[in-house]
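One thing: mind reviewing this one?
=====
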Amino acid sequence: MHKPKKQQKPLNDLSRSLTPFDPNRTLITVVELSKESWLVGGLIPGVQRQPLKKLKPDENELLKLLERWRNEAEKAGHKIDRIAVAFEAGRDGFWLARWLRARGIEAHVIHAASVAVPREHRRAKTDRLDTEQLKRAFLGWLRGERDHCKMCAIPTFAEEDAKRPHRERETLVNEQTTVINRIKATLARLGIRSFNPKLKKAPERLEHLRTPEGELIPPNTLAELQRDMARKQFVVEQIRQIEKTRLEQLKQAPKTGPNLMVLVLMRVIGIGIETADMLVKEILSRNMRDRRAVARYGGLTGSPHESGSKSREKGLARSGNARVRRGMIQLAWRFLDYQKDSALAKWFEARTENARKSRKKMIVALARKLLIALWHFVRDGVVPEGVVLRPAH
């Protein structure tokens, strides 16, 4: 595989701020978000106290508070040129950061797992203490120092919405599996094991099923099974609607960025539209720094543990995108069947030929290598060595 071309687009380093920091002209604010209230802490230039204000969850009230603190700093003789606001990623998503940026305020979303916390067995944990920790971490990040905290890349409104179809489909497929398993369990309790709920005529066959004793299904159990079958049919229809809409969008705008990536990825034999759509929307369309960042975001990196003479591997870090991790491990197994002559498949077979028990561990390494190879393929057009492609349409 040839070396890819270097990225021309400037990449952000989210582990530290690259903007020069002037503490005398910067209003620093952190927000501890919750469902019932927002706790806002600030560092105001020229003001000795460090204010802490609890607000109801209202973005307009937060904006008024920032303006009030700006006026306090100006009264103390410090002209504010920069207002920096940060809060942890959570259930509120990224809407508040986009809303603040649209009003000229520098907003950041902190990766919650990147903030160092005390390691006591029973450490004190309150919103006030959390706000102080966020303030210290955010201040170090603004100074340009590494390892204080890491920021999340804030997606646009359209980028967030593009992820909804395949995530909804994943939820519906899991719901469908749950309903099918419930139907099979109910029938197994009656001794019926040969019934397949997935068949098209399965609802019609329910009334004619008989137990090993020769009895019909009891009326209450039959009503329960009929409701489950109706629920399954409803979920299946919703899945079909999502898949139909996705195909129509690909046909209407095949040359747009994400859609073009999906079509390019589908040329690899063994990758279908569902896997291609998930990989593009979740990771391949993101502006990653390098191959290490790709593997790390995919959750396919290890977690070594070394202390003194002890050295061991604790397994996958699982700190990245769980959907990408699950999808890539499944794709890696499938890749071995569809791309047997590729360099990656031969590498895997050579490593596991005399150690068959290591296949489950090595499949993670193959998934990591395959993800990086697919990233180079859709970004730079570098075809992985030995991979067979479908003809371009």
